[in-house]
Amino acid sequence: MYIESNDPDGAEVYDMIIRQIFQDLVLPPSIDDMRAYVNPNEVCFIMAIKMRKTSQHITLKEVAKVSYEADDDTTVVLIDNENYLPNILRVLWKENGRENVHQPSRYVIHMKGPHEVSDLVVDDPHENLKRRIYDAIFRIVPEGFKIIRDLSEEDIVCVVATDELIKDEWIEKAKGYMVELNTPKTWD
Questions:
Q1: Rounded to whole angstroms, how far apart are CA atoms 1 and 10?
Q2: Which of 61, 78, 137, 149 has the most beta carbons within 10 angstroms of its beta carbon?
Q3: What is the chain's pLDDT, residue by residue, as a tens digit (188 residues)?
């Protein structure tokens, strides 16, 4: 974790804030490294975070059995793993409309007509972690910094925030942090 600032006391305060928010959101085990730039004179805040690798996404066919019953013209989803039920319902509602998804019992879901839903992603740990990191960043960004540019790519979440127009040099600094975070460390 590295915090760059023209104000050493401010950098120390931001270090404490960042550590506390990361602790509150249980992020330290999920983060490889982080860079931040805080400059009150330029009214600029940059944060780049490298996420650790997460497990693969889970599809519906991994946590439920899906079949089509032609005589009823109904797609039936039999839930094998109840832990994913809220996610399954959310994905099916989004895909087919809430009014078309019926749950006659706890472990059974019916949808009128044939539906190809087996390969729908019902849980994506990478996206879940990314959402938690964005939550942390938006808690850390100084109040009033409403102009935000998201430069995130793959396993790096990176934002530039200000209350003015974002300068090209800030974008370049953020991109430099991203390169640093993507460069494997060598131990001599």
A1: 15
A2: 137
A3: 889 888 888 889 889 999 999 999 999 999 999 999 998 888 999 999 999 998 899 999 999 999 999 999 999 999 999 899 999 999 999 999 999 999 999 999 999 989 899 999 999 999 999 999 999 999 999 888 999 999 999 899 999 999 989 999 999 999 999 999 988 776 55
**pTM metric for this prediction:** 0.79
Identify the three-state secondary structure at position 158: strand
CB of 24 closer than 8 Å to CB of 139:
no
Long-range contacts of 106-112 (CB under 8 A, 24+ apart): 106/79, 106/82, 107/78, 107/79, 107/82, 108/76, 108/77, 108/78, 108/79, 109/76, 109/77, 109/79, 110/74, 110/75, 110/76, 110/77, 111/74, 111/75, 111/77, 112/73, 112/74, 112/75
Residue 9 amino acid letter: D
- Per DSSP, the three-state class of 64 is strand
